Amino acid sequence: MQKISGETDSLMLNELEKFRELAENLLTDEADNPVSERIAYEELHDRIDIALSDAATEDGAYYETLNQVLLATPKTSSKLFFNQLFGGRQPKAVLGDLLAVMLNNSMATYKVAGVQVGIEKEVIRNVIGQLNFPTTADGTFAAGGSMTNFMAMLMARDKADEGGRFGGIQQNLTAYTSVEGHYSIEKNASFAGIGRDNVRHIPSDAMGRMNLTELDKAIAADIASGKRPFFVNATAGTTVLGAFDPFAEIAKIAKKYDMWFHIDGAYTGVAMFSDRRNTLLAGAEHSDSFSFNPHKMLGTPMACSIIVARDRKYLLDTFSNSADYLYQTDQDELNLGKMSLQCGRRNDALKFWALWKSVGTSGLAEIVDRQFDLAAFALDYVKNNPDYTVFSHEDSASVCFNYKGIPANKLCTALYESNELMVGFGQFKDDEFVRLVIVNGTMEKKDIVRFFAALENFANKAL
């Protein structure tokens, strides 16, 4: 190996070696202690020296503090983390993210990102293929699912009120989403100048899917009162029950009223990669935009969120702006800032590409199928155990239940505060329950059995 020259390069190699040591410590501790000890915020400064000061920190103390911080942080990749809609880690994706950090490119222009632009466009091109979108489609990466939902709403706004980009919104626009849809829709309506009060929350059916009769009724009522319905948001995997809205039928309603149809697939939109599960997305090919998060079920490091629009025209119309100091070479197609809400955007494509390149589309399908299969295994467990009350349904990556009638809030909080498990609770209509989310693609059936054993043992002893 050729010798690295320069003091800065030598220092970087030293820090990379320290990173390796710290990472090994974390992985070892994660295996032995899958749930980190909870430290109350009021105790942080007493337990770990996180204070900043004028003086430099001596290296020995510095690395020791880093190690303490790592081991004290909630372990979202452990086999006992079921609290949020992300978890686990795919090693090839982690490698891609580490390389992106080392390269430190901005994805705004081909001039500064080069081959990384090609990598991002290759990912987008293949996602478009998985969704059966037309050749006019294009897409981009954003900082999270809330951001991609926001981008969809902005494109819908500009399509409905073309003069609004320059003179401000001239119409009284209304948006529609299920009561089970993501909370970002209402927040984004505020950001987009639509107004929170102009978001209609459509009731759901018994399985958590948007009620189409109520959707049509709400749209018709708004038109009758002089409003302009412009945007309907459907969900591929609702946050609580993991339900899939009826996309083909919603597409017909959206077309009937000339509305933008967006699908928020942040949670389980990755079903597109599985021949066994992609039927859950039937009708999604008729949407105007589709977003999903590889940092959820696919285990790509956060954040990794993608939005594709069936016509790139709307991405360019809404997000392109002249900047002579920035866009100095190459065509718009290669200057990705022209289709992005951000300018100095980090390279989030490389980590997903690194995983996809390594395992192929068939490998992504295996990751997705494994988690749906584990969810089915967990659902079967609670269905066949009289101590459990079941609230969820088939074809979901969420398994919702109560154990022995113990209030879900009480059980989940006690498990967390006792460093036993990290699992959350949710509500649907009048019911509250434990929400077990299967989003770690490295898990096996024994890990699900371990989860239930830990929950039952703790509940029977402590509650």
Computed CA radius of gyration, to the nearest angstrom: 24 Å
**How many domain regions?**
3
Specify the overall morphology.
globular
Count of alpha/pi helices: 15
Query: Which parts are unreliable, with pLDDT below 50 for 5 consecutive residues or more?
Result: none
Describe, in plain words, how this protein is organized in 3D.
The chain is α/β, with parallel strands linked by helices. The protein has helices at 7-32, 44-47, 59-72, 91-103, 110-113, 115-131, 145-160, 164-167, 184-191, 212-224, 247-256, 312-319, 349-383, 408-417, 445-462, and strands at 81-82, 138-142, 173-178, 199-202, 228-235, 260-265, 289-292, 305-309, 388-390, 398-403, 422-428, 431-437. The chain folds into 3 domains: 7-75; 104-354, Aspartate Aminotransferase, domain 2, CATH 3.40.640; 355-462, Aspartate Aminotransferase, domain 1. The chain has 15 helices and 12 strands. The strands form 2 sheets. The protein has a 7-stranded mixed sheet, sandwiched between helices. A 5-stranded mixed sheet has the order 1-11-12-10-9. The longest helix has 35 residues, at 349-383. The protein is globular and about 65 Å long.
